[in-house]
Task: inverse folding
């Protein structure tokens, strides 16, 4: 009591993040007072599952924010009410109400009008789902302290398809999931309790997401087994009240693997029959089943090429079986050869999707959507728009965005992706010489397609806060908001999200927005700049730095860095010809080196390191400088966040602080690895004298060691000087250093490696005084010292005198040998 009365209301409540942006936190009394005039009754015009959900949500939200329990009613109003129902129901009881034009599909309309002689607030749509979306919008307005009395707001989603894809495996693991185990599956079955699934559906619905495939596109052959379908039906039941349709990923070879046919040839009539029967069975159990996503001929999955058939043949055989039931096929254009010959400079993975799918334009059935990753490679921190969007004018398309941050820091780094998605969606492909921005193409507008839209790979897990990082939820929220309305600005989206997630305190909203809006460019700056792609270790975790891993293998993510220069020549004139896949107007930009924007220059051109960019700086100096600036930016994030100490609840404050502090340490690992690597390969020094020179740094291998022995880190650039020290033969090792600087206050950074196969302990002493100790207990994706596991401990305010002995003691555990990279002693 005492402690609570001493702290501000916002900071008293500990919050886990479980409620995400649907907290319905109590409004300040003065603000709540503004809503006193709301009708006390929530009246629903029908009791369908979705309308029941809508009414319950309305009452829940109002109770949370206003502290009052609104009366539930149905039928015809006998007093003022907040009326929720479809326009059809509304017409019966309010014939005088002029229904606004444009109310179609999932749209909603919030308005005020008399019903049965009583002034009412009306939340309506054509479908129940529209009404539910209207309720969420209404509640969001109150949570953001906006007016709800003079409403006449029509909101129409930009595109009919707004789906989530989860990559959950039936054993409960998640491919590229960074927030715990699956909410859907465990041990080969659907979980007994689906509470989290309903809660997830609520989150999805609140931002207008209307479908979700639940299993990995690297699919399990049992997903449509007869005994699995009833289990899927349970998930569909949990989704249904929220208007979310269930979908699954299927493998093209299912007729053979699950159906025991001797073929899966899409043109074989037995195969077609198998799919028909299978989906009849699915729809008997799940009448509103949404459809399937298919990954074929990609990364080792079987596909139509096995029989010399095309993706259209493959998509259509499944589409034919789904069509009578109204289901959709999402056929992924992520089809490429991952055994490309890297020695052939004409080979280019970026060309694959267009080369394969463009010739098939017009040959896909009407209920097929070709699902296209935003760029031609694979969810990198920066890529140009996939030219395939402009190359399918007689085919439905959907854009695949990645909310799970596979290549953008895996939710251990804050990287708000909405600004990147907006650049992609706004990009005008100028197909047929007309204005055809990606957002208009996928909405079906540019080419008059019946359907299309947005697919986000999400991968929420059982972690309390869904994505493992409170700030990462802005990406899920932002995906839904953009799919609904791609014209919203990133700033408007993050403002909305911050208010709903952390409250309306202007300092909080402003600070969080600032961090989020700067985070993608910061991440890009300390990873892969100038269109180099992320430069992570693509052969392993896709997390830490690994520039060398791009090259000399069949995966085709080459950056063609040599002593002469860097970048991939993708021009028509001298390169791979990828640029030729764009319309003539876009070609003009990318074919010419001077026309290509700096941030994509190395994606399209191979240039000397000394090539001068539009910025006036050379390529190599830009690489060096941006890595310093990006890492520096993450330090600012930490101090900006610290300013919110008394304005955000303690639990989330400390969790985000730990996350941002970790990120700022890891950004330095990135900075040094990429800069050292380019320094070595280019042989050109940093004009600002920083790369390879660290005046405050003492390498562990140069300290006085007892027990510790030097260890060569692979790749070399992932450790300072290429080496760490490890403690292998004993229970405890020490590394000592005699301080020779001036007497004063210092900060100490200890760079160590935290793998996931042990929990080493570290202690730091000055003389005989223990000044810090910690456990290396993070779960980073590494079993050895490298750029994935390299971690920084920041110790502030140490009093040091010349001659002081600084001693680090490492206590190994299991396979983790208390590894150390270096220490840095900085004047405070
Ligand atoms: O980038 C790759 C990922 C794979 C993923 C694949 C895809 C599900 O590393 O994990 O597989 O993309 O999108 O199919």
Result:
């Amino acid at each position: 009591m005492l402690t609570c009365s001493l702290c501000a209301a916002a900071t008293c409540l500990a919050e886990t993040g479980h409620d995400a942006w649907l907290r319905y936190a109590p409004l300040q009394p003065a603000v709540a007072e503004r809503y006193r005039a709301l009708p006390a009754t929530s009246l629903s015009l029908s009791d369908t599952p979705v309308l029941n959900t809508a009414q319950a949500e309305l009452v829940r939200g109002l109770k949370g924010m206003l502290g009052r329990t609104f009366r539930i009613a149905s039928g015809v109003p006998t007093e003022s009410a907040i009326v929720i129902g479809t326009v059809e129901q509304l017409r019966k009881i309010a014939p005088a109400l002029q229904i606004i034009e444009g109310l179609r599909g999932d749209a909603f309309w919030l308005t005020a009008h008399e019903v049965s002689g009583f002034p009412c607030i009306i939340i309506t749509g054509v479908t129940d789902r529209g009404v539910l979306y209207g309720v969420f919008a209404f509640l969001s307005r109150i949570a953001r302290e906006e007016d709800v009395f003079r409403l006449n707001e029509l909101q129409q989603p930009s595109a009919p398809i707004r789906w989530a894809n989860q990559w959950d495996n039936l054993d409960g693991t998640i491919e590229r999931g960074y927030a715990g185990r699956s909410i859907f599956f465990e041990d080969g079955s659907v979980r007994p309790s689906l509470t989290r699934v309903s809660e997830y559906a609520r989150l999805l619905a609140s931002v207008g997401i209307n479908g979700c495939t639940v299993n990995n596109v690297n699919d399990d052959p049992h997903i449509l087994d007869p005994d699995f379908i009833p289990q899927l039906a349970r998930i569909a039941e949990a989704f249904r009240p929220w208007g979310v349709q269930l979908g699954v990923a299927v493998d093209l070879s299912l007729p053979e693997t699950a159906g025991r046919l001797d073929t899966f040839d899409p043109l074989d009539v037995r195969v077609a029959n198998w799919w028909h029967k299978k989906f009849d069975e699915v729809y008997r159990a799940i009448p509103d089943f949404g459809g399937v996503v298919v990954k074929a001929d990609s990364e080792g999955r079987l596909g139509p090429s096995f029989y010399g058939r095309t993706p259209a043949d493959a998509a259509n055989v499944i589409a034919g079986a789904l069509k009578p039931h109204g289901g959709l096929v999402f056929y992924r254009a992520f089809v490429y050869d991952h055994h490309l010959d890297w020695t052939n400079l004409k080979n280019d993975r970026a060309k694959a999707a267009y080369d394969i799918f463009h010739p098939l334009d017009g040959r896909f059935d009407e209920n097929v959507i070709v699902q296209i990753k935003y760029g031609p490679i694979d969810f990198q921190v920066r890529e140009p728009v996939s030219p395939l969007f402009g190359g399918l004018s007689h085919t439905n398309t959907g854009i695949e965005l990645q909310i799970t941050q596979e290549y953008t820091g895996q939710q251990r780094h804050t990287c708000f992706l909405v600004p990147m998605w907006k650049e992609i969606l706004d990009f005008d492909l100028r197909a047929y010489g007309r204005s055809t921005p990606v957002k208009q193409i996928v909405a079906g507008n540019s080419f008059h397609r019946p359907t299309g839209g947005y697919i986000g790979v999400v991968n929420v897990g059982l972690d309390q806060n869904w994505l493992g990082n409170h700030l990462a939820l802005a990406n899920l929220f932002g995906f839904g908001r953009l799919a609904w309305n791609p014209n919203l600005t990133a700033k408007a989206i993050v403002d909305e999200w911050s208010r709903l997630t952390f409250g309306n305190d202007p300092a909080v909203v402003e600070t969080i927005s600032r961090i989020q809006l700067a985070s993608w460019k910061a991440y890009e700056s300390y990873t892969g700049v100038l269109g180099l792609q992320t430069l992570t270790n693509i052969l392993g975790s896709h997390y830490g730095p690994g520039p060398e891993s791009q090259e000399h293998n069949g995966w085709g993510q080459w950056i063609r860095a040599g002593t002469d220069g860097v970048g991939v020549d993708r021009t028509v004139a001298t390169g791979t010809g990828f640029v030729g896949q764009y319309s003539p107007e876009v070609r003009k930009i990318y074919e010419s080196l001077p026309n290509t924007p700096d941030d994509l220059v190395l994606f399209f051109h191979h240039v000397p390191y000394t090539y001068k960019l539009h910025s006036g700086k050379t390529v190599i100096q830009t690489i060096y400088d941006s890595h310093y600036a990006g890492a520096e930016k993450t330090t600012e994030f930490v101090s900006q966040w610290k300013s919110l100490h008394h304005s955000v609840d303690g639990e989330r404050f400390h969790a985000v602080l730990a996350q941002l502090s970790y990120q700022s340490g890891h950004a330095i690992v990135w900075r040094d690895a990429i800069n050292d690597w380019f320094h070595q390969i280019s042989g050109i020094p940093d004009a600002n004298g920083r790369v390879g020179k660290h005046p405050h740094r003492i390498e562990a291998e140069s300290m006085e060691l007892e027990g510790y022995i030097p260890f060569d880190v692979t790749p070399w650039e992932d450790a300072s000087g290429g080496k760490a020290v490890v403690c292998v033969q004993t229970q405890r090792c020490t590394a000592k250093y005699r301080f020779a600087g001036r007497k004063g206050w210092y900060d100490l950074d200890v760079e160590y490696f935290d793998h996931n196969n042990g929990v080493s302990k570290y202690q730091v002493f000055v003389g005989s005084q223990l000044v810090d100790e910690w456990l290396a207990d993070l779960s980073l994706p590494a079993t050895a010292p490298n750029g994935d596991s390299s971690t920084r401990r920041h110790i502030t305010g140490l009093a040091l005198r010349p001659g002081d002995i600084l001693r680090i003691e490492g206590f190994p555990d299991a396979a983790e040998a208390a590894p150390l990279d270096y220490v840095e002693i900085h004047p405070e």
Remarks:
- The radius of gyration is 28 Å.
- The chain is about 30% helix and 20% strand.
